[in-house]
Design a protein that fits this description.
Layout: E1 3-7, E2 11-12, E3 18-25, E4 33-39, E5 46-52, E6 55-58, E7 66-71, E8 76-81, E9 90-103, E10 106-113, E11 117-121
Parallel strand pairs: 2-11
Antiparallel strand pairs: 1-3, 3-8, 4-5, 4-9, 5-6, 7-8, 9-10, 9-11
């Protein structure tokens, strides 16, 4: 089964750092698009970072502070966060878009979400 499990969320002080992890299974990880989203209370879910093939991108709000990376050998995606601000407080979700095998040469597309991990930036 396609599965994404986030971890690493915590309570940190402003200016602190945190690394979130997303462990993936059940699909062809290396060829899949992996995204990090976040949703703060009362706000719409927003895209934070994307990893697709050999390229990556982060949203303007976190540019210069957050970095997305992936370890294809271990089917894990990371969101490295530094210089955290109170406005970064949110539930962070891992999202994958890709395919999984249903037989020789046959694949089915999917979109999957993790359960989310809470990041709280406060003094």
């Amino acid at each position: 089964q396609v599965q994404l499990v986030e971890s690493g969320g915590d309570l940190v002080q402003p200016g602190g750092s945190l690394r979130l992890s997303c462990a993936a299974s059940g699909f062809t990880f290396s060829s899949s698009v992996i995204n990090w989203y976040r949703q703060a209370p009362g706000k719409e879910r927003e895209l934070v970072a994307t990893s697709a093939g050999g390229s990556s991108n982060v949203a303007d709000a976190v540019k210069g502070r957050f970095t997305i990376s992936r370890d294809n050998a271990n089917n894990t995606v990371y969101l490295q966060m530094t210089s955290l601000k109170p406005e970064d407080t949110a539930v962070y979700y891992c999202n994958a878009e890709g395919v999984y095998s249903i037989g020789p040469g046959h694949y089915k597309r999917f979109t999957s979400w993790g359960q989310g991990t809470q990041v709280t930036v406060s003094s």
